[in-house]
Amino acid sequence: MIAVQFPAANAFEIAQVAQPVAQAGEVLITLKAAALNHRDVWIKKGQYMGLKYPCTPGSDGAGVVTAVGAGVSGSWIGKEVIINPSFNWGNKESAQSDQFTILGLPREGTCAEFITIPESQLELKPKALSWSEAAALPLAGLTAWRALKERAQLKSTDRVLVSGIGGGVALFALQFAVASGAEVWVTSSSLEKISKAISLGAKGGFLYTETGWVTHALKQTGAFDVIIDSAGGEGLNDLIDAVASGGKIVFYGATCGNPTSIALLKIFWRQISLLGTTMGSPSDWKAMIAFVETYSIKPVISNVFSLAEASDAFKLMEKGGQFGKIVLKIS
């Protein structure tokens, strides 16, 4: 079969590899679409934990079940499915287990024509979603869902700020919060991205590249009950200033690294909660899928490439030029 391969750090190729065979408890899926995440870029660059090469990247995918392994009902054959990329969460809802992994490393990922997946990771594809939309949903949707619903305990009366709008998780956070009845604002370095966010239901946005953006935001909107962020870094103290007393800042990444200092006095005196989150549990996954179907959420697609054009897709992801998910269409 054809698959994207990282033969080594900072190396990329589209290669012929052996087609996998469904083992006991698994199904073979003919993939129709896959989607990229920043995680795939970090693996390509050799900047991720547990690296192994060669590997096939990809945590997001949707397709048709074409064969089943021992112990799996043949009724799955022909079903249109999406894949839960959160493996071995464990028995605690509060955090993942030590055995937790994400599809695409160490297990071979979705940027290929076929993949084998444990039956427990399958969900029927929401009928209203196209193949590209279905492939765009899993990792980013699950991450945004847990950040908002489980960690932040979002209420319809909350004022929410989603930072760095344009990436998959941030956009799902915007869409889920708007559908939940919350008042949502965004930040970006791009007025064009803020305008697009407004078309998706945001009340407005702020350029985080402008000095004093927090002061401007507080004058315009008031403080935020919930902030969803993936950057961290020196901007963390801006978010502490922007959040309401008793409010919550939820982090699902730290692309700007650690801050050199943190305003602890403000955090304890104003009863602010800093909350970390990663992916989601099986119950989060089920709840997220049900919410998407109930509220007719449509994932935002930035660009669609063929599998043969995967190199261009990765270049776009590395530039950060997308607004929404980057999808690979797999014939």
Description:
The structure is a single chain. With 331 residues, the protein is of the alpha/beta class. The protein folds into two domains: 2-137 and 300-329, Alpha-Beta Complex (Quinone Oxidoreductase, Chain A, domain 1); 142-276, Rossmann fold (3-Layer(aba) Sandwich). Helices cover 28% and strands 26% of the residues. It is built from ten helices and 17 strands. It has helices spanning 38-44, 131-136, 138-151, 168-179, 191-199, 213-221, 236-242, 264-269, 282-294, 310-319; strands spanning 2-5, 13-16, 26-35, 60-68, 80-83, 86-87, 101-102, 114-118, 122-124, 159-162, 183-188, 204-207, 224-229, 243-251, 273-276, 301-306, 325-329. The strands form four sheets. Strands 3, 4, 5, 8, 9, 16 and 17 form a seven-stranded mixed beta sheet that branches. Strands 12-11-10-13-14-15 form a six-stranded parallel beta sheet, sandwiched between helices. A two-stranded antiparallel ribbon has the order 1-2. Helix 3 (138-151) crosses helix 4 (168-179). The radius of gyration is 20 Å and the shape is globular. The chain starts with a strand and ends with a strand. The model has no long low-confidence stretch (mean pLDDT 97).
